[in-house]
């Protein structure tokens, strides 16, 4: 007890100028202070780059205040916490988002203008932090925004990769990968925590011993120790005083030193050996929706999960007098796909080996704390690790997995009898020459709730992936273990930051900006559908966005587009066969041929179209890289054809990422979401496009189905086989019953004849390979697994409907308004509310307005 505690506190209070003011003067003082004392730059002339960093630091100061106070509030209230475990967070740039959410953007703009800097220009100086591949990582980032906004006590946990997703350059039409060393300019947004570190062990062996109560215990020893060091990234909520955290771990050498090597005089070798530790958090694996069974990847998974669970249990135990029984009412974890599933045996290890709980108690707690989100049913994405690899790297975990599996299968046998076939499907082990650990089965067995990410996908998860589990849990009285939570996107970034013109329009016509927190309010726009003033403003906003993208394309691709007269048709997403960029290429070629055959007079009656494609291919995915080359070559042929280039252009936009997306998406008239039905779990850019006034050309897949339900079928150009039809079509096709339309034949023939190879022999043989695989479909062989040939004719029709509607501009604009106004469901605020209520059982933990007077 310190009798002077209050006096000391008061003194500290006086020393601190509490709460940095939001007024222009305070902001300017903050920035100039950082120029001088953080950057040590000269205060009378600092470059824009330095101004960006000083401004970022001054914003971070404000974030830290609300971050600290939010944490203190959560602790004082002892609220239940949820931890979102993900190997990917695709945050995108932070500056504008932070200013918007802290509600200080206008004052920063003024403060900077006054000293000669343009805020929008500063935004462009930020290196896009890209610690994710695609939809899964971006979803995690949108989720964080909504978790903070909804005042949930959630923290994200992941890895602070030194290299994010590679930068894509296009050289002679081909993807070239450049390492993304994003920390080169330092990261002013993070808070380094050298005092928050945990030891993580790899390899070694397991000893058994008897404790003082005579119980058999396990001790994992030996091997290598790596330290995980925390970096905090404050995530401010919108229109709230809450700021939550994304804690990312960096791998550092362990604290123990190899004295042996040192004594032998091999000091430098010893240091070199220790440096290998840093390799664990060096690089993000660049695969989207494909699993690569590399040992380093498994190391990454365990590394971040081990540090995370230790950190979360330490926080739980900090409050005195805790009983372990309280754990499920205070802590839960969400596994973002199976990537962090090793957390389940890790939790068991910590509870049993370290905390001394008995097995059954530990398993009971674990099962209540974990939840698992499935993001794909594609077989190539489902993680299966060789048991011997887990045994080598994590020997204690393999023992625990064996226990978990054995006890689970006993439970099943008890209630179901010996149902061999079903048991082998539910086992964590996939038997065979090489025994494999099925991470998805472990995630289901160790979780309280399992969810898919869109209605159609959640049904497929139950029907195709886990039917035995569904039956089993139903029989056990847990019919609601499998649930759906449809994805969303945050309107703060994807409308307010990306499309300020549209955001202002919404606020003006709806009478306030409350729609940013209650997106269903957009529906109010439908009342004004017939207002020519609204229609005109709507068209103007779209025009301006198209002009902006046209400039971007001129700068990055040196291609001229006509934003006044061309329909902008956009497909941006990872390049993957299931996403069918190829069917888009086929249609573009078909359209080109049609134009070529027309008289100039007829051409003039056609809708002019700019087909814009973008996305990265995994570096090891050869087919995807060939598709990029094909897009680029189609562009070269079309854009240089004097007969048609005015009517049809094709552009491959390089290095698609979050910040480019913020320019690309608002400029679309239509966007393409055309996966084979049943393959795209949800898609999230489909939502962003429609909110920004673009219409969808799409299949009945993923969230398209629900978007159509909300917006009306007249707002979407739907085509293609339905999910229940796909298997039958594949089967029929295999047996040789597979017509290819004359139009598609013409396109394929042209590709095979070399029309798009442009004298490049290597490209030519790759293109021919693509086509021949599809064409030779039959005779028991599924060369056209994604049924491009089947869906092509209806795809052409959908595209004709696009042209027909576009010719009627008034109707087009009204359709676009109606669709955007009906997107209320697709905010992550709705998704996260559902997670909070159905899965996490969290309470609202809104921090009250700060008390600015000294105590
Ligand atoms: C899905 O392919 C979905 C995102 C986010 C992806 C995409 O349709 O929108 O997840 N899945 O839920 C994935 O990356 C590993 O699986």
UniProtKB/TrEMBL annotation:
List GO terms (cellular component aspect). cytoplasm
The protein's required cofactor(s) are namely: pyridoxal 5'-phosphate
**Which residues are annotated with the PTM N6-(pyridoxal phosphate)lysine?**
688
- Provide a Gene Ontology MF annotation, just one: glycogen phosphorylase activity
Q: Name one Pfam family in it.
A: Phosphorylase
Query: Could you give a single Gene Ontology term from the biological process aspect?
Result: glycogen catabolic process
> What EC numbers are recorded for this enzyme?
2.4.1.1
Name the keywords, alphabetized. Carbohydrate metabolism, Glycosyltransferase, Pyridoxal phosphate, Transferase
List the InterPro entries.
Answer: Glycg_phsphrylas, Glyco_trans_35, Pyridoxal_P_attach_site
Q: Which reaction does it catalyse?
A: [(1->4)-alpha-D-glucosyl](n) + phosphate = [(1->4)-alpha-D-glucosyl](n-1) + alpha-D-glucose 1-phosphate
Q: What class of enzyme is it?
A: transferase
Function of the protein? Allosteric enzyme that catalyzes the rate-limiting step in glycogen catabolism, the phosphorolytic cleavage of glycogen to produce glucose-1-phosphate, and plays a central role in maintaining cellular and organismal glucose homeostasis.
Instruction: Spell out the family assignment given in the record's similarity comment.
Output: Belongs to the glycogen phosphorylase family.
Please identify the protein, giving its name as recorded. Answer: Alpha-1,4 glucan phosphorylase
Q: Which organism is it from?
A: Vitrella brassicaformis (strain CCMP3155)
């Amino acid at each position: 007890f310190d009798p002077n505690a209050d006096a000391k506190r008061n003194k500290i209070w006086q020393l601190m100028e509490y709460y940095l003011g939001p007024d222009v003067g305070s902001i300017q003082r903050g920035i100039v202070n950082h120029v001088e004392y953080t950057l040590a730059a000269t205060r009378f002339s600092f470059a824009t780059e330095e101004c960006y960093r000083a401004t970022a630091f001054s914003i971070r100061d404000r974030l830290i205040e609300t971050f600290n106070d939010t944490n203190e509030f959560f602790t004082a209230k002892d609220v239940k916490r949820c931890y979102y475990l993900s190997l990917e967070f695709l945050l995108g740039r932070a500056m504008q988002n932070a200013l918007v959410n802290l509600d200080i953007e206008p004052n920063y703009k003024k403060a900077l203008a006054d000293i000669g800097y343009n805020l929008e220009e500063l935004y462009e100086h930020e290196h896009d932090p890209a610690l994710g591949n695609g939809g899964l990582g971006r979803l995690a980032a949108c989720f964080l925004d909504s978790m903070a906004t909804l005042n949930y006590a959630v923290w994200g946990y992941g890895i602070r990769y030194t290299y994010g997703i590679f930068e894509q350059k296009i050289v002679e039409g081909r993807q070239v990968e450049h390492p993304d060393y994003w920390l080169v300019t330092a990261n002013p947004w993070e808070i380094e925590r050298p005092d928050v570190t945990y030891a993580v062990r790899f390899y070694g062996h397991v000893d058994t011993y008897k404790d003082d109560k005579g119980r058999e215990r396990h001790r994992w020893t030996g091997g290598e120790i790596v330290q995980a060091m925390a970096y905090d990234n404050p995530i401010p909520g919108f229109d709230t005083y809450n700021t939550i955290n994304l804690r990312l771990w960096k791998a550092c050498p362990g604290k123990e030193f190899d004295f042996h090597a040192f004594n032998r005089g091999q000091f430098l070798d010893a240091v070199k050996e220790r440096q290998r530790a840093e390799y664990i958090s060096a690089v993000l694996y660049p695969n989207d929706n494909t699993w690569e069974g590399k040992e380093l990847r498994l190391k990454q998974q365990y590394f971040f999960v081990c540090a995370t669970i230790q950190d979360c249990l330490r926080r739980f135990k900090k409050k005195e007098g805790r009983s372990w029984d309280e754990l499920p009412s205070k802590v839960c974890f969400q596994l973002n796909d199976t990537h962090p599933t090793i957390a389940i045996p890790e939790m068991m290890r910590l509870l049993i080996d370290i905390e001394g709980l008995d097995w059954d108690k530990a398993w009971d707690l674990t099962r209540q704390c974990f939840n698992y989100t499935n993001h794909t049913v594609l077989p190539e994405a489902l993680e299966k690790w060789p048991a011997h690899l887990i045994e080598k790297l994590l020997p204690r975990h393999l023992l625990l997995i064996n226990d978990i599996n054995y006890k689970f299968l006993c439970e099943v046998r008890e209630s179901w009898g010996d149902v061999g076939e079903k048991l082998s499907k539910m086992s964590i082990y996939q038997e065979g020459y090489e025994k494999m650990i099925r991470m998805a089965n472990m995630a289901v067995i160790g979780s309280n709730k399992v969810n898919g990410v869109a209605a159609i996908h959640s049904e497929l998860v139950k029907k195709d992936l886990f039917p035995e589990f569904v039956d089993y849990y139903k029989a056990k009285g847990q019919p609601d273990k499998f649930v759906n939570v449809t994805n969303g996107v945050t309107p703060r970034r994807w409308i307010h930051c990306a499309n300020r013109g549209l955001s202002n329009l919404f606020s003006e016509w709806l009478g306030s900006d409350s729609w940013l927190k209650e997106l269903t309010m957009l529906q109010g726009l439908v009342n004004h559908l017939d207002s020519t003033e609204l229609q005109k403003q709507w068209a103007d906003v779209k025009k301006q966005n198209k002009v902006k993208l046209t400039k971007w394309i001129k700068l990055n691709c040196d291609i001229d587009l006509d934003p006044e007269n061309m329909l902008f048709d956009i497909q941006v997403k990872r390049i993957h066969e299931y996403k069918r960029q190829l069917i888009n290429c086929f249609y573009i070629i078909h359209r080109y041929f049609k134009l070529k055959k027309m008289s100039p007079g007829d051409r003039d009656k056609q809708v002019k179209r700019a087909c814009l494609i973008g996305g990265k291919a995994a570096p090891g995915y050869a087919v995807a890289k060939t598709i990029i080359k094909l897009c680029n070559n189609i562009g070269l042929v079309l854009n240089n054809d004097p007969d048609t280039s005015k009517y049809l252009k094709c552009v491959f936009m390089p290095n698609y990422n979050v910040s480019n997306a913020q320019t690309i998406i608002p400029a679309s008239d239509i966007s393409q979401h055309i996966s084979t039905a049943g393959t795209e779990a949800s898609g999230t850019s489909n939502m962003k496009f429609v909110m920004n006034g673009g219409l969808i050309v799409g299949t009945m897949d993923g969230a398209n189905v629900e978007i159509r339900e909300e917006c009306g079928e007249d707002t979407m150009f739907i085509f293609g086989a339905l999910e229940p039809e796909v298997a039958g079509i594949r089967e029929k096709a295999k047996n040789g019953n597979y017509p290819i339309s004359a139009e598609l034949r013409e396109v394929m023939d042209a590709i095979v004849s070399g029309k798009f190879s442009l004298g490049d022999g290597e490209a030519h043989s790759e293109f021919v390979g693509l086509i021949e695989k599809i064409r030779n479909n039959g005779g028991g062989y599924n060369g056209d697994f994604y049924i491009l040939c089947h869906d092509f004719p209806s795809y052409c029709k959908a595209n004709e409907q696009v042209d027909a509607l576009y010719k009627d501009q008034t109707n087009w604009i009204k359709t676009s308004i109606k669709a955007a106004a009906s997107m209320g469901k697709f905010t992550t605020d709705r998704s996260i509310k559902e997670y909070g209520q159905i899965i996490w059982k969290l309470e609202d933990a809104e921090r009250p307005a700060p008390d600015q007077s000294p105590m």
